What we know:
- By secondary structure, the chain is mainly beta.
- Helix content is 2%, strand content 46%.
- The longest helix is centred in the N-terminal third of the chain and has 13 residues, at 4-16.
- It is globular and about 70 Å long.
Amino acid sequence: MKYLPFLLLIVFSSFFCHSQVISLIKPIPQSTYPWNVKGFTSCNGDLYFSNGTQLWKTNGDSTNTVMLMQSFSDVKSITCYNNKVYFVASDSVNGDELWASDGTAQGTQMVKNIMMSNGPGAYFYNTLDPEGLLTVYNNLLYFVGNDYYHGSELWQSDGTTSGTQMVVDIDPGTGVYASGVKSNLSVYNNKIFFRGGVDSLRLWTSDGTAAGTHPINSILPTGYAIFGFNGRVYLAGIQKDSLSADYGKWGLLSSDGTDTGTLLISDSIEYLTENNAVLNNKLVFMPYHSGNLHDLYITDGTPGGTSPLKKDLRLVGPNRNAYFAVYNNKVYFSASSFVGINSCQLWETDGTPQGTIEFANFTPYLNPSFLTVANGLLYFKGVDSSRVELWSTDGTLPNTKVINMPAANATYAYSSTVFGNLRAPIYHQGNHLYFQSFYDTAVGLALYKYAIMPEGIDVIESPPTTMFYPNPATGFIETTEAEVQKITVFDLTGKMLLEGSGRRIDISSLNPGVYIVLVRTKSGQKISRVLKR
């Protein structure tokens, strides 16, 4: 038995030294709209995605990565519902309509031709967010559809042709341009919220029935961003409740969905963006104001609990996306504090003004994007010198680093690495990150996966750097380290099983076997192996 640790060391070194690798799954033919590659939707264990005008499915290997449909327009809003994926697409005869797929080419079919007579389609003149067209609510699929005879209105579907029908006509009118619902649907507190109506401005709420769909007359929204927090919806608008002392004031409003339940939270906020996250039961969000500048705010839902964390930040890019991600009890985001600088850096906030700081300034043009938390680390796409790379961090500067990728033969401008030409969000499933990218000119657009393991495990070439006792163990194990921030337990494939704070963690729920335990302290991270009996 005295040789067991040495033998385990050999096994772990052999297994993990080559664990973090990037691999090509399959080339994806360039579509009509090559820059409109989409993110991924998980359904029944498979991933569905679009390269623009084609719907694809993969389970992570080349053989089972197949095209399901060639659309004549952009494939939009891929949504999992009732063991199928639903999406918006068109064929050679019909315009943009509602489609469904069971994961086979034969089982990929249009659900209903909502706008008949070879019209432009139910969504053709829809200016809404193309990735937010479909919403699952109360076991039905809801969306904004246009059948020409009623304009853009609220529809529902149970996945069948007969069960796809208009819910209510909130603004009677005819034609592809007719008014009605003028925003995507948002579900909060078991209600649907959207903008629309006769003046196209009112905030509406619905329970999915005609009788339960009505405007909230106490709110006149001034933008399209709506988000939920603690049972209420938040948006920028004008208080229109004549009985309120804040009648006529413009600012951040919250509502419970009733005319009398609208409150003015702050009159110092002009417009909202979709950038928001919940941190320690408070809402961190990013409004913007004149000069195209953004402020970082925090609120507990009350006027007294609403305050700025950082003023006059700048977001870069056409979507002005800060890529919020909650990690290690902080919110990380992309922003710049310098007007005129066409680059963002990685920022962090712990919910206090003094704790809202630029996390690091590694390069002049880092521009972090696609922030993704996976297996205990924060990953993002960023610029290293002149190359766009994949980065990872555990929240400490020494362990924030570029994950080196193999060079490519790419002539597509951005970079000579895979992530340099990444055009869609990174998707985490299991022990892999998935993404589409222009990598090699000989391959073109392709689907890739990146095998992720806990940082540090793939470089074990010496005895464990920390100890746990008892070891072997049946219940609690305790580390000898001080100032412990987090303990994470992984199996031998790198899958995270348990996580806790403090120096002790209970492993009694695990099956007997060997596990990897990662300890994060204020000074860095250390690793050990524990035998569970």
